[in-house]
């Protein structure tokens, strides 16, 4: 029976070129990605691989020994398809289509007295296809892993350059990483210390979630200063969604607190990173829950605990009152009266309820409620700075 199978396969060997053309046609019809390949690749490279695959099986059926070197071309082609970005499922489908073409040829060529050899050829073909598919899958995945590792390192290098204020364009262009005109810069802090594996797992979740977050390429870097994330500036319009993503990812290593600062361009990314780190530290020290915090969320603490780069932002807290002088007058009178609404009302010659209403309006317009300890401190600092600016 083995000889019968070998003779049947030998007769099909003369049809290799025809079978390769048929395989290619079926492949292009079933898998559009193959039809989109350049003409020289379709007509030369793909066709040559098809002929090699068909001839290889037929010779094995004729009794030739299996040789690991026979798989070399398949491995090379798999690595090329991985580099080009072809899905693995499409690549493997092409080999099963090839198996169908060869099987159809064997059945069509078989004489009545050779039909009993077809089951033997079917088993041989299944084993051979499985061996080829295994080799192709292994080579494809190895190449994709190498590409992914190289790209991730490139992403880290671009992030590192931007955070250091160094040129990043060459590396970004080489790996097709688009640079944004400006960035939302995040600094992440994990509530659990020494989390180890748990923290790395959280970072993988965050990286995966950020891949689909808005347009552009998210840049994530972990270094001795902490965990930095650079997102295209448009992400600032989606802070609540970003906060939910970070909160959901952080359960394994405790809550994630993120400080956020916006850069005006790429040159000031280092300054934005320093602001973000300081904001995150303030939020963490204050026991804030997991979330994303900007300067306005910790403005008073930020202003009082470090260099005075936040003065303009503090003074701007009262900007919404610029067109309402009666509200600014009421705030000054309330503070001058040591937060005694009746004394403030007497100084303004209005009813105490009017003072209450104006204070509530100030809270709504500015976000700083002068009836609370933190709010009164912020309002007092803002008034002081506005007065200083006028004197200057």
Task: Outline the secondary-structure elements.
Blueprint: H1 2-12, H2 16-30, H3 32-35, H4 39-61, H5 72-84, H6 88-109, H7 118-164, H8 169-174, E1 183-190, H9 197-211, E2 219-223, E3 226-232, H10 239-249, E4 256-262, H11 269-285, E5 291-293, H12 299-304, H13 311-315, H14 325-336, H15 341-348, H16 352-366, H17 373-391
Parallel strand pairs: 4-5
Antiparallel strand pairs: 1-3, 1-4, 2-3
Explain how this protein is built.
- About 65% of the residues lie in helices and about 10% in strands.
- With about 400 residues, it is α+β, with helices and mostly antiparallel strands.
- Strands 2-3-1-4-5 form a five-stranded mixed sheet.
- Strand 2 (about 220-225) and strand 3 (about 225-230) form a beta hairpin.
- The radius of gyration is 34 Å and the shape is rod-shaped.
Portion in helices: 55-70%
Can you count the beta strands? 5
Using the alpha-carbon principal axes, give the shape. Answer: rod-shaped
Strand coverage percent? 5-15%
Radius of gyration, Cα only, in angstroms? Answer: 34 Å
Structure characteristics:
392 residues; alpha+beta; 17 helices; rod-shaped
